[in-house]
Here is the input.
Amino acid sequence: MPSGSEAAGIMLTGFVLIAALLLGGGTRYGVPNDSLIELASLPLLGFGLFGLSQRPVPPRSRPLLLLIACAALLVLLQLVPLPPALWPHLPGRAPLAETYTTAGIPVPWMPISLDPSATIRAALSLLPGLAVFLGVISLRLDLRRALCLIVIALAFFNVLFGLTQLMEGSDSGLYFFEYTNTTSAVGLFGNRNHFSALLYSAVPLLAAWAASLVYKQQLRQAVAVAMGGVAYCAMVIGLAAAQSRAGLILGLVAGAASLAMIWPRGLTRSRTLPMRVLAVGGLSILVLSQIVLVLALGERATLGDATRLQMARITFEAALAYFPLGSGFGTFVPVFGMFQGPASAFMNYVNHAHDDWLELWLEGGVPAALLMLAFLAWYVSALRPIWRRNSEEPLQALLFRRSGSIVIALLLLHSLVDYPLRTIAMACVFALACGLVTAPPDPIQDTDAPVK
Here is the structure.
């Protein structure tokens, strides 16, 4: 049984995760749904910060906590007003300063961010993800596993919801966002790409959960594992219904990586015939589902939209203009509009660059790029101990740590061609994955031998 603090931690973390996945599928800052989730995350955020002050910080969590502190400091620095003698000389600010001069108005004290209110809104949207991460790193393995089940269950619900959208047609009232893909399943998200992101992220978590039951070799878990197989088939159907090229490709990667995560230990450790049959059946479903995704991808095997290449080019030009400090977090829309020429005038409203790495460079400049590199360095360093063959960790903990590392890789790859982490829902899933990669504070002892 969890202690009082653990019970509070799992309830608060689960509540924020559920709220984010139900309400946080939009991509515009400051909408009412996002504000509700941000407010709901404050108790968990306070609980997590208080917990950090009352116990030693887990060693493997320290690098990420330091990165979070640096990111918060960067946001604050972007909001600090600078004197008129300095601000106009920052890259990209001279045309704005000339506007004040032409109007006969003295240049006021101005911050690095071109739109401080937008920067504040962008920072507030990160609170739920930060709260989830702080909640996860304080939880034992069994409680973390429960959070994974929340993601799996809500991904399954999104599939059912998305299929209902398709059955009702493009005029369905179940499409909750004004700008969306009405010919595809989108679930509770604003578009099919982010809907797909939830589904392929759920696949490694589902594989870890099902494999952990197989490794226990308990026949009473057979029903639960069978339900896991049904859930995985639902994820595949959802990815096919979404028709997102990136989602289908990353769905294939998620399946292959999940297979690498559990193979061959799922068979060699299952000593009883029924559990061997169950394991082989599960692996067969995984392989057949990969074939289904390949066939679905074949129907979408067309060249990418040239509009995205134009957006990337314009974003890159804007990033160079505001190099090295950036234009400020949350300022992409107005800055992109200033750099649009006649050739790209057909793009009436572009809310993101569809390349989150490039957009972060535009908004945060060199400091944001350094933070991204630091995160990648942490991630690469975290991979070796959890993927090496002779790991001494308990198998149960290792499965979920590996699944978290797969989810991180999938979302980072997707961010090269889209912006899944700009939704609060997927930011919270990413935070959960980062928390899973860190070792549990008190992992449950596993009777299985360490993975070799």
About this structure: The radius of gyration is 23 Å. The CA atoms of residues 53 and 261 lie 35 Å apart.
